[in-house]
Design goal:
Blueprint (H helix, E strand, L loop, with lengths): L6 E2 L8 E2 L14 E7 L5 E6 L7 E7 L6 E16 L7 E7 L5 E6 L7 E3 L25 E4 L5 E4 L3 E4 L7 E2 L1 E2 L9 E2 L4 E6 L7 E5 L2 E5 L13 E2 L9 E7 L7 E7 L5 E6 L7 E2 L9 E2 L6 E5 L3 E5 L4 E3 L12 E4 L4 E5 L8 E5 L9 E5 L8 E6 L9 E5 L4 E5 L6 E4 L9 E6 L6 E5 L7 E4 L7 E2 L9 E6 L7 E5 L2 E5 L9 E3 L9 E7 L4 E6 L4 E5 L17 E4 L2 E2 L2 E6 L4 E8 L5 E9 L3 E5 L5 E8 L4 E8 L1
Parallel strand pairs: 14-15, 48-54
Antiparallel strand pairs: 1-2, 3-4, 4-5, 5-6, 6-7, 7-8, 8-9, 10-11, 11-12, 12-13, 16-17, 17-18, 18-19, 20-21, 21-22, 22-23, 24-25, 25-26, 26-27, 28-29, 29-30, 30-31, 32-33, 33-34, 34-35, 36-37, 37-38, 38-39, 40-41, 41-42, 42-43, 44-45, 45-46, 47-49, 49-52, 50-51, 50-53, 53-54
Length: 639
């Protein structure tokens, strides 16, 4: 938080300096929270602010003529987020979208004297969607979707849930998109939640819009109003779906990959008998998809929308089975496939609650729902796991946002809660997984600055860290290789990592890219029939792999040749070691041309770069960078 502020680089991003201008500080000296940077037609720089982490409003209008000296020109009152747009033809004209700090609705302001004064535009876009207030085209979501752009042709574009165009500076508006078929409106389908509007250079009529549903292209903005085909989706082979959960089986139709997921604002997509490569999915539910699961016998599957709706899908029908009264936006849940009982987070602001849902295959009117509470359950659940080793009842393990780990015996009837939290647990629990028996448990955390991996072999009586050389990053999920139990993989903020031996005191972790790259892996699901792994990512769709009986090699892929670089390669001794990913502990050794060691340093390479300022003689040097299992060499010249 203290790093908030304005930063400037004069060497292409190799180094950054934070501005110390009082314009970027609040009255108590805390940094302002900056939101938007724009250039006017005279190359003056303009910056706006949003709600501060220290409780200060946004809305400051800050200007500089040289990027060094800054002045607060004015302030939009009662503002949280502010989006600024300069005119493309008049250096004194600007527009501002303001998220009101009290109501959350959006107001539009304009100035004709470079913010010496400003006025509110009262003719706001009125979205034809009956669920959106006439005075707020973002429907209270300005913290998420808020766009304003203008051009030299007189177009003024704003976006929230849908897109609007004005040709007279905001005096009048035309709605040019709809995210569903709104009665009485003719407009092109564009997925809801607009995040960007971009005009094509050299052709003022062509625009591209960025949304929660991908990219949309308009070849001629002048004919977009009243036209259902003026804006077209352009998402073929553009894989950016943000999954929250994923599930895999092969029992729905008896063969092939059956996949189901819950996604950010793109529903719950499913495909049965998928082929290798990219596939076309069909949404079984819309909106923000969340938890999903397959019945082990293929009799049904579960999909959900946020915390409000959990549906069961049977061969001939589907219906809601959860109460939808509590829980989080993307809600945690777990299916006991043996007893056909669903457990979900149903917590309120004051009470931690687990909702138990049973008898859901007998028809919507027969669904039985019970709320489970206990004095030990003091914070909202963030992870569930049903033990596969107890089949006559449900033994439910619950991880919480406060770092608790509880075991609820007989959760299917009258549960008895037991606290098996590790004494050193800090952070929020993201995943709970079993090893070879019920006493062998893995727990992961999804906070920074904490121990992210814990292991017990005695059911939670004692816990040991399995962090090893893992960089400081949140861990989302964990799986053990059932064919070689000492092998474990984890899903993190930076893709999948693996260790060849989890049994050692300090495991060695390496990234296992294989086409995935640095993307948040939120869920790992295992199909036991053939040990196929489904990795669901928050940004690049789904990936599959497979556990095998061949031991994992951690020798070959620790350092790719292009992972590390030295910049600049010719210097006076000041240079940086730049990494494309977090590596962990490394030795950095410099040799002169005769092979003599002239410098050595051991450090953690968990950030993007490491700076050096060495006093060395002119000449050619060889840098050897090595981890526990791999090494690479680089050349550099000292002048």
């Amino acid at each position: 938080i203290v790093e908030q502020g304005l930063y400037k680089s004069t060497d292409g991003g190799a180094n950054w300096t934070k501005s110390a201008s009082p314009a970027f500080q609040e009255s108590n000296g805390s940094p302002s929270n900056l939101n938007d940077i724009e250039l006017d037609i005279n190359n003056n720089i303009w910056v706006t602010t949003t709600f501060s982490s220290w409780g200060f409003n946004g809305g400051k209008i800050i200007q500089s003529t040289d990027g060094n000296s800054w002045s607060v020109i004015n302030a939009i009152p009662n503002a949280d987020r502010t989006e600024l747009e300069p005119s493309a033809t008049n250096a004194n004209v600007f527009w501002v979208l303001k998220q009101d700090s009290s109501s959350g609705q959006v107001d539009i302001y304009t100035t004709t004297d470079a913010f010496a004064t400003f006025t509110q535009i009262t003719t706001e876009p009125n979205d034809a969607d009956p669920n959106i207030p006439a005075n707020d085209f973002t429907r209270g979501q300005a913290f998420w979707d808020l766009v304003i752009e203008s051009d030299a042709s007189g177009n003024l574009i704003v976006g929230g849930i849908n897109i609007f165009r004005s040709t007279n500076g905001g005096a009048n508006w035309s709605q040019i998109s709809e995210w569903y078929n709104i009665a009485g409106l003719t407009a092109s389908f564009v997925h809801a939640d607009i995040h960007g509007a971009y005009q094509r250079p050299g052709n003022p009529n062509e625009w591209v819009f960025a949304t929660d549903g991908g990219l949309f292209y308009c070849p001629d903005i002048t004919v977009a109003a009243g036209n259902s085909s003026a804006i077209l989706a352009r998402n073929k082979d553009y894989n950016t779906i943000q999954f929250y959960y994923g599930a895999i089986t092969d029992v729905i139709n008896g063969a092939g990959d059956d996949l189901l997921g819950g996604t950010q604002d793109n529903g719950s997509p499913a495909i049965f008998d998928a082929a290798a490569g990219a596939n076309g999915f069909t949404d079984v539910l819309g909106g923000d998809g969340a938890y999903c699961a397959f019945d082990d016998a293929g009799s049904y599957y579960i999909a959900s929308r946020q915390n409000k709706v959990h549906w069961v899908f049977l061969p001939s029908t589907a219906y809601q089975i959860s109460s939808g009264t509590g829980g989080t936006f993307i809600n945690q849940a777990e299916l006991d496939t043996n007893l056909d009982i669903l457990y979900i987070n149903n917590s309120t602001m004051s009470t931690a609650i687990v909702e138990r849902i049973s008898n859901f295959q007998s028809g919507q009117g027969s669904v039985v729902s019970n709320n489970l509470t206990d004095a030990l359950l003091t914070s909202s659940p963030t992870a569930f796991k049903v033990s596969p080793f107890t089949t006559g009842s449900t033994k439910l393990f619950i991880g919480t946002v406060g770092g608790q780990l509880l075991r609820a015996d007989n959760a299917d009837t009258t549960p008895t809660f037991n606290n098996i939290t590790g004494t050193s647990f800090v952070g929020s629990i993201s995943d709970i997984e079993f090893g070879q028996n019920e006493n062998e448990i893995f727990v992961s955390m999804f906070n920074y600055g904490v121990t992210s991996l814990w292991y017990t072999s005695d059911g939670g009586t004692t816990w040991v860290s399995k962090e090893g050389n893992l960089p400081d990053l949140p861990v989302r999920c964990i799986l053990q290789n059932p064919l070689i139990p000492q092998e474990v993989i984890i899903g993190t903020e930076l893709g999948v990592w693996a260790t060849a031996d989890i049994t050692v005191a300090s495991p060695s972790w390496v990234q296992t890219y294989n086409g995935m790259s640095d993307v948040t892996v939120v869920d790992l699901d295992l199909r036991a029939s053939d040990n196929t792994i489904l990795a669901s990512t928050h940004g690049r769709g789904m990936f599959t792999s497979q556990f095998t009986s061949s031991p994992l090699s951690v020798e070959s892929d620790d350092f790719a040749e292009n992972t590390l670089s030295i910049v600049p390669t010719i210097s006076n001794g000041e240079f940086k070691l730049i990494s494309q990913r977090a590596i962990g502990e490394i030795d950095f050794i410099l040799y002169d041309i005769t092979g003599k060691e002239v410098y050595r340093s051991n450090f953690m390479m968990n950030s993007n770069d490491k700076s050096f300022d060495l006093n060395l003689n002119s000449g050619l040097y060889i840098a050897k960078i090595q981890s526990e299992s791999s090494s690479v060499t680089k050349r550099l010249i000292i002048r």
